[in-house]
Amino acid sequence: MPPFQHPLTAVLQRDPRYKLEAYDFVREALGYAQDCLQMGQEQSGAWETEKRDPEEPRVERHLTGQELCEAIRQYAQEEYGLMAKPVLNSWGIFATDDFGEIVYNLIDVGLMKKSESDRREDFNAVYDFEEAFCRQFEITLPE
Fold it and tell me: How many CA atoms lie within 13 A of 111 on its CB side?
């Protein structure tokens, strides 16, 4: 019997454009959107990640591609500040279209789900990286 192979291993072999960190980050950003930002409509299914504690009750929320892109932007700024764009670029992510590619790669291996109305094109040109991560960046100081 062949040894267990994590589904992401197949994704990384099939599509080497993105680093493992990019996939982990998108999955974390989905959780951030649902749990911290309370984004999306309550629903079982779409853009749902399988990486969660089964003991922990959770309301599943469906996010559109545009909503997920916005959540990713906020999460990246919170996690990496002014370094968000260079960090994302180092993982192979240069535009919101790349988020769509990552999400659909995760869907293909069963690590995310989508609804019938979701499309890969929902991620296309949602915002410009230079504008979103550099020109619009604001530093907020704790009170």
Answer: 20
